[in-house]
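During the no-cost extension, the postdoctoral fellow (Dr. R.K.) reprocessed legacy sequence entries with the updated structure-token encoder. One reprocessed record is reproduced below for audit purposes.
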Amino acid sequence: AIETGNALLSNGAYKEAVNEFESILKRSSPDDFPEKFINLQNSLGIAYYALGSREDEQANLEKAIGAYQKGLTIAKVDEYPKDNALLNNNISIIGIKKIFDFIIIIF
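Re-encoded structure tokens follow.
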């Protein structure tokens, strides 16, 4: 359940949270439950972002972006403006992190 994934995420069990969200997404149709799909993609992105702080940072950040982008396929700005803004914001945060990390490497 989403609550289980969120609890795992809150407790720092990032891999397990990723597995939980991915498992739910396999059984969920964005056509039947668009808001649930958007929420799950956002949560999956957050879990991948957090997992990236521990291992395979670049790969997990790319997976986070992918999850957010999948959420954006449903979260159109005219139908789900808040979700659209949230997902785009999360993508921007990753972009800023990558730029910041690059600057640190240069200096």
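The mean pLDDT is 93. DSSP finds five helices and no strands in the chain. The remaining legacy entries will be reprocessed before the final report is submitted.
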